[in-house]
Amino acid sequence: MAHLIAAIDGSAYSESVCDHAAWAARRLSYPVTVMHVLGRRDVASAPADLSGSIGLGARSELLEELAELDAQKSRLALKRGRAILDDAKARLEAAGVTTVDARLRHGELVETLSALEADAELLVIGKRGEAADFTRDHLGSNLERVVRSTARIVLVASRSCQPIARVLIAFDGGPSALKAVNHLATSPLFAGLHCHLLTVGTASESDRRDLEGAAALLREQGLSASHDLVPGQPEQVIGETAERDQFDLLVMGAYGHSRIRNLIIGSTTSEMLRKSRIPVLLFR
């Protein structure tokens, strides 16, 4: 059965992830699977072997005490994980989601999502997790890995969830952008919203026709749609447009190039995620 997945970790973004998932679930009439993954460092499957890190003459009681501390850490992580899921489920239900499935899993986030996403329509995840440096606009360590590995649409939640009425679509005419426009044209998620397609940079006549055709497709499906072509650098122009014209959601293609190329020249996707103060819907 089709559903949405909300991945939470107990960080400051977890409530926003639930709120964005509830918004999407209400519009799509889908259940939500809310998931929290305990990493291998959070829950040890066996007592740690600490004998090599203790000097000569250490008593066996000390080793036993350290092993017990390791076991306590494991139990606390499980308790905390269940509490996080209980709070998330209550928040989703209070927001009007009728069916919520809470799942606590062990392992790595990317692998766990891959096992659950077969019937998922959408994955909702926070921009940053518990360990991210908020003062430096760092992205969560798992975010790019998740977006690159999943075949699903990813909604990256902003710090707080605000009503969504105006959608900015970064349109470059590529496969991801065309996929996004086709999805917007047919999905109930965008019914009644205003969509603005923005192409940034020097465009050919063919690019102009593609932009106008994308806007026309949205209008044919009953959506309110406008379009514009603006010179400049995509990261700067998209960010300035989103803020100046008070858009509520940014839609764009995700990571169109390899990791190696991104390391050399940078990634528009990562830069937009860092700078954006609104949620970002990513298509690959």
Short description:
The chain has 284 residues and is α/β, with parallel strands linked by helices.
Keywords for this entry:
ten-stranded mixed beta sheet, single chain, 284 residues, alpha/beta
Characterise the protein shown here:
The protein has 284 residues and is an alpha/beta fold. It is built from nine helices and ten strands. The chain has a ten-stranded mixed β-sheet with strand order 3-2-1-4-5-10-9-6-7-8, sandwiched between helices. Strand 7, helix 6 and strand 8 form a beta-alpha-beta unit. Helix 7 packs parallel to helix 9.
Radius of gyration: 22 Å
Unreliable residue stretches: 132-136, 257-266
Helix fraction?
A: 40-55%
Overall structural class, as computed from helix and strand content, comes to: alpha/beta
Main sheet strand line-up:
3-2-1-4-5-10-9-6-7-8
Instruction: Describe the largest sheet.
Output: 10 strands, mixed
Average pLDDT, rounded to a whole number, is: 86
**DSSP summary, beta strand count:** 10
What portion of residues belong to β-strands? 15-25%
- What's the overall geometry? elongated
Run of helices and strands: EHEHEHEHEEHEHEHEHHE
How many helical stretches?
A: 9
Distance between the termini: 23 Å
Helix/strand layout:
Layout: E1 3-7, H1 14-28, E2 32-38, H2 60-94, E3 100-106, H3 109-116, E4 120-126, H4 143-149, E5 153-157, E6 166-170, H5 175-186, E7 194-200, H6 205-220, E8 224-230, H7 234-244, E9 249-253, H8 259-265, H9 268-275, E10 280-283
Parallel strand pairs: 1-2, 1-4, 2-3, 4-5, 6-7, 6-9, 7-8, 9-10
Antiparallel strand pairs: 5-10
Helix pairs in contact: 1-2, 5-6, 7-9
